[in-house]
Amino acid sequence: MANEHILVVEDEEDILELLRYNLSKEGFRVTGVTSGEEALRSAKALLPDLVLLDLMLPGLDGLEICRRLKQDSRTHHIPVVMVTAKGEEADIVAGLELGADDYVTKPFSPRVLLARLRSVLRRRARTVPGDEEPISIHGIRLHPGRHEVTVNGKATDLTASEFRLLHLLARRPGWVFTRSQIVEGVHGNDYPVSDRSVDVQVVGLRKKLGPAGQFVETVRGVGYRLKE
């Protein structure tokens, strides 16, 4: 992971220097900027391997920066990890829906932050399985073409919606999906399903997966993921 280039967007100079020090010590190349406008210019010019993005910034805020990065063909592939104040669940959900890859909350441990950044970089380095490619994880084998799921070799009967939900999570293990992303991924845009319905569907999927259901994890206030 050494020599990966991280663009840090943080308007508080002391925090920026702390991040620069800790990331550089671990072998990362670091560029630090203090405003949203600088962040967009630097991202387009440098094409870093990851953007560590504070949400509370002067001028353009972090959510708007994330939206613009993900809409630009030159930068949409760059992973974004948001830094938020504790308890800003609405901003976390909004950021993930805009395409952010993960988040950390202030105050944060440098060790935890480094682990989260490395995890995002590892996930992005992997090839995401194609829509028809079989997936095996945690004893679960999912075959999209055959619409079949087995758990530890035993066939499991899932509904069409449960199958699509499991496929969505299994294609990107470790990634957090918000409830609205799950609705869109499973049912399509503008489908009239409530957050509560998603929760009920996840409960049903866990039950059918048996012991493997424990790997479908709840991320409180945000959504769900399949454990890496």
UniProtKB/TrEMBL annotation:
This is Response regulator transcription factor. The modification 4-aspartylphosphate is found at D54. Residues 5-121 form the Response regulatory domain. Gene3D superfamilies: 3.40.50.2300, 6.10.250.690, Winged helix-like DNA-binding domain superfamily/Winged helix DNA-binding domain (1.10.10.10). It comes from Desulfobacca acetoxidans. GO terms for molecular function: phosphorelay response regulator activity; transcription cis-regulatory region binding. CDD domains: trans_reg_C. PROSITE patterns: OMPR_PHOB (PS51755), RESPONSE_REGULATORY (PS50110). Pfam families: Response_reg, Trans_reg_C. InterPro entries: CheY-like_superfamily, OmpR/PhoB-type_DNA-bd, Sig_transdc_resp-reg_C-effctor, Sig_transdc_resp-reg_receiver, WalR-like, WH-like_DNA-bd_sf. Keywords: DNA-binding, Phosphoprotein, Transcription, Transcription regulation, Two-component regulatory system. Residues 132-228 bind DNA. GO terms for cellular component: cytosol; protein-DNA complex. One of its GO terms (biological process) is regulation of DNA-templated transcription. SMART domains: REC, Trans_reg_C. Residues 132-228 form the OmpR/PhoB-type domain.
